[in-house]
Amino acid sequence: MVVSNRLPVDRYTSDDAENGEEGWRRSPGGLVTALAPMMTKTDGAWVGWHGAPDEALEPFSHGGMDLIPVELSTRDVELYYEGFSNATLWPLYHDVIAPPEFHRTWWDSYRRVNQRFADAVVQHADHGATVWVQDYQLQLVPSMLRRARPDLRIGFFNHIPFPPPEIFAQLPWRQAIIEGLLGADLVGFQRPSDAANFMRSARRFIGASVKQQQVHVKGADGQITHIARAQAFPISIAVDQISELAERPDIIERSRQIRQDLGNPKTILLGVDRLDYTKGIPHRLKAFEELLKEGRLTVEDATLIQVASPSRERVRQYRLLREEIEGTVGHINGSFDTMQNTAVRYLHHSYPVEEMVALYLAADVMLVTALRDGMNLVAKEYVTARTNNTGALVLSEFTGAADQLKQALLMNPHDIDGLKNTIMRAVNLPPNESRRRMKSMRKQILDHDVDHWSAEFLSALAETVVRDDS
Ligand code: G6P
Predict the structure, then answer these.
(1) DSSP H helical segments within 67-124, as ranges?
(2) CATH no. for residue 121?
(3) DSSP 136
(4) Is 243 in the pocket of ligand 1 (CB under 6 A)?
(5) 159 lines ligand 1 (CB under 6 A)
(6) What residues contact residue 349 under an 8 Å CB cut-off, 6+ apart?
(7) Ligand 1 geometric centre to CA of 179 (Å)
(8) Is the pLDDT assigned to residue 39 strictly greater than 90?
(9) How confident is the model at residue 23 (pLDDT cuts 50, 70, 90)?
(10) Are 297 and 386 members of one domain?
(11) Which range of residues forms the domain containing residue 443?
(12) Do both 461 and 430 map to the same domain?
């Protein structure tokens, strides 16, 4: 059984149906691609919210998967999702880039909603089932499951960073979160440093005795219930899907078209992000603007395409960031555009994967300037799409991906001069060097795709010892 905040399907309304016929389609994204085949094969079920507030749905099947919807009210969305998940935990876990807010009403809602997800699992899981809980929205679910169903084998994977204890310390409910996670047999993280941060917090805030990244967890009666282990499992992408799209003639043609529509500049730079303050979009724009100001780049030679897909738009920090970015883009374009050329082509949309791959093929330089990122799958997708080993990846040191993509042009996005120099290095990268770097990065990713990730996690989880006294 997989448990995540969102079910792996999106609702759609068909355009041609006059009465707006509705249906479900599988959501894009690596996690769904990785787990869907396994779920259909093993008769597994997926527990999650279906995306519409104030609507209770019965379990249903889609694409061979059993889906168990969890209901969220409008107020749950406000307090549990927008509030505690995305205005408390998200900024706290991303190095407090934005100030986290701590509200007791948000925490109460987080606890209640986590309990609702756990109840759905308890109701539907077979005896001895394996349950895999996903991400920071559901950190209390493992211990809730452990208490109700000691027969289950419980895994948890945190897709975002886990902060150092000095930062985690701010959280008024730090102890409950640590205990929630320690309900799992295996707690997976993106990087070894995230796993180490978690174990340091377990030691510091609940006095856990940690040996070799393991804790003997005790129940209310003081007896050891299980051993919880923390380990890194860096997530990846659906390599075959991206590689196949990158070789499809219509997509290659589309990438040419994009280039032509921009007036065939010598260099296309590309940024693709959710519109999120962790992504360092303002830093990237500042560096690009200064390069234009100094004449190291010109709009005739270079265009920056920035795709910023809409995200969490009801959360204040996201609205402020959007205003800031759009102000900056307007300022840069107003100063540097000519009748023929534009400096920044800014797109506040999300696109289907086909269009994304066409953009990757069109881009000579990919800019990933995140200030903190659990992994960053865009970096891995770009490299995978470059099947002819051309192009350059400018990659922030503060991404999980930097641990694996050591041949990227790594930089610190806070250092604007360093970022500018790295962008210029990428623009002028000799073809030999670009080929050498791309080849080595592609090999790393091809050997470690998202199936590899889920298989590694699940086999490590299968090795954990489950005590079943029931
Ligand atoms: C990150 C998180 C995911 C989340 C996604 C999109 O990748 O790790 O859990 O689903 O962002 O954010 P959203 O708030 O739209 O679900």
Answers:
(1) 74-76, 90-93, 104-124
(2) 3.40.50.2000
(3) G
(4) no
(5) yes
(6) 307, 309, 310
(7) 23
(8) no
(9) very high
(10) yes
(11) 239-447
(12) no
pLDDT of residue 281: 98
Please check whether residues 416 and 379 belong to one and the same domain.
yes
CA of 123 to the centre of ligand 1 (A): 26
The number of distinct structural domains making up the chain is 2
Is the four-CA dihedral 69, 73, 74, 80 of positive or negative sign?
negative
For atom 9 of ligand 1, the residue with the nearest CA is 135
Cα(426)–Cα(269) distance, rounded to whole angstroms? 10
Tell me the two tokens of residue 251. 């997509």
| C-alpha distance from residue 189 to each of 131, 157, 247, 297, 379 (Å) | 17, 6, 33, 40, 19
Q: What is the CA radius of gyration of the chain?
A: 23
CA of 16 relative to ligand 1 center, distance in Å: 31
Residue 440 and residue 326 share a domain: yes
Query: Among 196, 205, 195, 136, which Cα is nearest to 169's?
Result: 205
Identity of residue 43: D
Q: pLDDT exceeding 70 applies to what percent of the chain?
A: 98
Residue 311 near ligand 1, beta carbon < 6 Å: yes
Q: What percent of the chain stands above pLDDT 90? A: 91
* Confidence (pLDDT) at 229: 98
End-to-end CA distance of the chain: 20
Q: What angle do CA 168, 174, 177 make, to 5 degrees?
A: 115
Instruction: Round to whole Å and give the CA distance between 219 and 361.
Output: 54
pLDDT at 467: 62
Task: Write the DSSP string, 30-60.
Answer: HHHHHHHHHHHHHT-EEEEE-S-TT-----E
Q: Both 323 and 429 in a single domain?
A: yes
My answer on whether 38 and 89 are in the same domain is yes
pLDDT, residue 96, reads 97
Q: What angle do CA 369, 446, 29 make, to 5 degrees?
A: 60
For residues 119 and 156, membership in a common domain is answered with: yes
Residue 18 and residue 161 in one domain? yes
* Structure-token match 């994977």, residue found: 157
Residue with the two structure tokens 């377990």: 202
**pLDDT score of 469 more than 60:** no
pLDDT at 19 over 80: no
What count of other Cβ atoms lies within 10 Å of the Cβ of residue 103? 14
> How confident is the model over 144-195, as pLDDT tens digits?
999 999 999 999 999 999 999 999 999 999 999 999 999 999 999 999 999 9
